[in-house]
Each structure stands twice: as C-alpha cells, then as structure tokens.
Write a structure and sequence with these properties.
The chain is mostly helical. The chain contains 16 helices and 4 strands.
Length: 485
C-alpha cells in the first residue's frame, strides 16, 4: 500500500503510471492515452464514416449521369452494388468507432474515479474540514460522470464531425476544384464562429458544475444535521437555503442555454447551401461540369449539416467535461500537510507519552490548545477533564497525527510523532469515540476494522473485553450481523 518515498501524502498507493497534472486537458489526455488502440479505432472509424458519406453523394451523381446521358441500366446496377458495399464497410467502421469511444469513456471514468478516491483517502483532516461532503460527492459522482460524457458522445461526435467536414475537401476536387469555393468559405467562417461559441460556453458550463456542487453541499449538510435542524425548528430556513441554491443552479443552466441558443453556424449552413447551389449551377451553365456533378456536389454539401448540428451539443459535452475535470483535478492536486514518512521509526511503543509546549489551532483560527505540557508514564492511566471545546478530543487527534501540532512536540515512546512511520504509529494507537461510526458491514468486520487480519478468536476476545460478547451473540447472525447505514 505504500511506496518507497518518504515525502508521499498521508496515504497513497503505488502507481504504474503518472498522470499529467499540468492542466485539466493534459490530465484527460494522459488518461485517454492509456487506451491508444481504441483511440486509433475511433479515428479510423470516423475517417471511414466521413469518406463513406461522401461516396453516397458521388454514387448519386454517377447514377444520375448513367441515366441522363446513356440510360445505361447495367452501369446503374454496378453503381448501386458499389454503393451497397461501401455502406456496409462504412457501417462496420461506424460500429467500431462507437464501440471504441464508449470503451475509452467508461475506462477513463473508472480510472479517474479510482484516482480521486485514493487521493481523498490520502488527504489530511485539515483538507476534509475545509471541503463540504456534498461538494466532494458532487465531484466524485457527477463531475466524473461528465468526464465520461466528454469522450462519448462528446469527443466521438467532435471527431466524427471533423471528418465529415474534411471529407468533401478530398472528394469535391474529383468533380471540379472550383467547387471548393463555397465549402472553403463556410469552413473558415465556421471555425471562427465555433471558437467564439466555445469561449462563451466555457464560463457557463463552469458555473453549472460549480452551482451543482454547492447545491449538493447544502443538501448533504441539511440531511446530515437533520436532527439539529428539527430540534431548533429551522426547517423553513434550511428549505429557503436549498431553494436559493437550486435557483442559482437553474440560473446557470439558463445562462448555458442562452449561449447555446445563439449558435449561429446554423444560419451559415443555409447560406452554404444557397451559395453552393448557385455556384454549381453557374459552372454547369458555363459547361464546366455536367448535371450529375451538380447533383453530386449539392448532395455532398448536405454532409456539412451533421457537423453543424452535432457540434452545438457535442461541444457542450466537451466544455462540461473539461469544467468537471478542472474541479476533480483541484481536489486531487490539493496538497496535504501530512506525509507517510515511510522511512520513519517503526518500533513498538512502550506506553510513554510526553507533550512539550504543544499548541494547535484549526485552520489558523483561535488556539484550541496553547502551550500544553504533561507526561504519561508506561502503564499509567490519565483522565483529561475540561469544559466542552477545551481541547480534550484535540489532544487525542494529535497523538496519531490526525492533525499536526502547530507548535511544540509530542513524544510517543520517546520519539517525536513526526519521526514515526505514520502507518506504524496509527496501528499501535486505538481511539474510542463517544459517537461510534458503524460501517455497513458485519459486526466482526467493524470490530476488526483497525486490524483486518484479526482472527475470529481475537475478535471475540476484543468483544468480551468490551463486555459486548453476550450482546452480539444474542443476534440471530451473531458476529456476522450486518449493521451500519
């Protein structure tokens, strides 16, 4: 579970590869590149789909000429057969592209969720004190899911649209290079319009993801503290807080919808069809191209319809995915104050404990402890008494480095807790809280949580020492009774 470095975070696992954390896009690319064969499949399928769609228009033109010029039924049959074969190949490639894209999306979602979970486990308590649970859950579930949608259908449609846009530039010259004029003008204007659209869309999608996270934080806090809310008769206040968070999220979605509604390449598409038709008819009138070429060219212009319409929502998926990746990466790259100290002391504790002028404050606020000094000898039992908020629980949390002291030093077994190997330190310290948290597992698993290799005999011995054995055996399933929620 640990690596050889002594500067690792509080908890980490060995990685067989290193993601690129320099930016959200680089991070996503580093994850996607782990599946290179499927990326190749997406591009090959998209290329085949684009060329196959263009061949439909070419075959229509050839067929039109076969009938109009010579009424050659045999040639028309061969053209039809060729069209069927090309479309079967196109269909197979489309299926492969969609399959590969889905595999990439699912695997990147799996990998990023695992990476986020392991990093969250490794963060210090100071990190978790400063981040609302609902906000973290929103990022771990919804934002990671948005990353999946970024790849499929997002990037799947973007790549497919790109090849639909490119294919006519390969096929039109075979009819007449002059016909490239209208598609070229459209493509240039389209790129600039798309850039403007994405620039306007990015802050809107970021606002949607941010406000959704805040909505989850408000909801999780209200549910977690429902007993306090009801006890203080503050239901109406909490409902109003949730309602305001919901309105903020609605307003962000409205903003995004407003940006998407102003996507004017749809207008440009109509101008492309009109301009292309007029240009092709002009060349036909001049005798440069025949009627079949006019039909084929205008049929090929229809290919621009797919990238124009698809990009309106495909880039919304991409923008939302990048915004989500940014939020997830913020959690992963947030530094933690504690490290595993793999090379630290790993000996057995003798039971001695010493606090020397220890001070501590949560998040830099007023001190919870200030210049505390005391010594506990091996075998000695000590009771710490004080008012609520005096720092009794804080002292225990400093022992196993749940938090680190702001000043002073804490010696356990004659060694500063900072010099201990963190895993060795925590394995030899047991803390029993007033409010016990039960995991959704068996009683035996809960008892052995800090020592997962414990035998059944050891588990029962611990239960007997806590005077819980008879209580546990009174259940139908005994130590295998499922508890927690």
């Amino acid at each position: 579970m640990t690596t050889a470095s002594s500067a690792l975070s509080e908890f980490s696992v060995e990685k067989t590869w290193q993601p690129d954390y320099r930016s959200p896009i680089r991070w996503l690319i580093s994850h996607a590149l782990r599946h290179k064969i499927f990326i190749v499949g997406v591009f090959v399928g998209a290329f085949g789909n684009g060329i196959g769609a263009g061949l439909v228009a070419m075959h229509i033109g050839w067929g039109f000429n076969a009938i109009a010029e010579s009424n050659d039924v045999a040639a028309l049959g061969w053209i039809a057969l060729s069209l069927v074969v090309s479309q079967i190949i196109r269909g197979v490639l489309m299926l492969g592209r969609n399959f590969c894209s889905e595999i990439i999306g699912q695997r990147v979602e799996r990998d990023t969720r695992d990476e986020l979970y392991l990093n969250l486990i490794g963060k210090s308590m100071s990190f978790h004190d400063n981040h609302a649970t609902g906000e973290i859950m929103a990022r771990a579930i919804n934002d990671v899911r948005e990353i999946n949608l970024l790849f499929n259908p997002g990037m799947n449609l973007v790549i497919g649209s790109a090849f639909f846009m490119i294919a006519p530039f390969f096929l039109v010259p075979s009819i007449n290079p002059q016909l490239l004029l209208a598609p070229a003008i459209y493509a240039i204007v389209y790129v600039f319009a798309l850039w403007e659209y994405l620039t306007s869309l990015r802050p809107a999608t970021e606002a949607v993801r941010r406000d959704f996270g805040q909505l989850n934080a408000v909801l999780a806090e209200a549910i977690d503290g429902v007993e306090t809310v009801k006890g203080a008769a503050q239901e109406t206040k909490e409902i109003n807080r949730f309602d305001q968070a919901l309105k903020n999220w609605r307003d962000a979605y409205t903003w995004q919808g407003d940006v998407e509604a102003k996507y004017y390449p749809l207008l440009l598409l109509g101008l492309l069809f009109t301009g292309g038709l007029l240009h092709s008819l002009l060349l036909f009138d001049q005798g440069v191209i025949d009627l079949g070429d006019v039909v084929a060219f205008n049929a090929m212009l229809i290919m621009f319809q797919f990238p124009t319409f698809a990009s309106q929502f495909a880039y919304s998926y991409v923008s939302a995915g990048v915004s989500s990746a940014k939020r997830v990466l913020e959690l992963i790259t947030t530094e933690t104050e504690l490290d595993q100290n793999i090379g630290g002391y790993e000996g057995s504790m003798d039971g001695s404990l010493q606090f020397n002028n220890v001070s501590f404050s949560y998040n830099g606020s007023s001190p919870a402890l200030e210049k505390i000094s005391f010594t506990v000898e091996p075998g000695q039992t000590v009771a710490i008494v004080g008012q609520t908020g005096a720092g009794k629980s804080t002292i225990t949390k400093l022992l196993n480095r749940t938090y680190d002291a702001s000043q002073g030093e804490i010696l356990v077994g004659g060694h500063n807790v900072r010099d201990w190997n963190l895993e060795a330190l925590r394995q030899q310290i047991s803390i029993i809280e007033q409010d016990i948290y039960l995991f959704s597992r068996t009683l035996a698993e809960n008892i052995a949580f800090g020592c997962p290799d414990a035998t059944q005999a050891e588990i029962e011995a611990a239960a007997k020492a806590a005077q819980a054995h008879e209580f546990i055996t009174s259940f139908k399933d005994g130590y295998q009774t499922k508890v927690g929620g």
